[in-house]
Request: fold
Amino acid sequence: QVQLAESGGGLVQAGGSLRLSCVASGRTSNRYTMGWFRQAPGKEREFVAVINWSGSITNYAASVKGRFTISRDNAKNTVYLQMNSLKSGDTAVYYCAAGSTLSTLPMYDYWGQGTQVTVSS
Reply:
């Protein structure tokens, strides 16, 4: 089993930046695909960004492309989501996910508890 713990969320003004971190523990593997998803109240969980085990492949949702950057540090068992130029539509609970398949769908094996990101207008 793998445990994921997100951190770095908070309240930020529109146009600002946040960096989310997700630390994996337990029976971790550096070869996991790592992804970020988010869920706003009343909405389904949606894909944000994904990175393969080596960091050589990344994909982003169209809504965040050019503003968000996903990265990972396997030595620290950590994946990051750098969020720039935040806007109110980015307000959501952000979830870290780990799995064996590179996917934009929420079919990952492990999930964190989420960290709240609130962007004020």
Notes: The longest strand covers residues 18-26. The chain has no helices and eleven strands. The mean pLDDT is 95. Residues 90 and 119 are 7 Å apart (CA to CA).
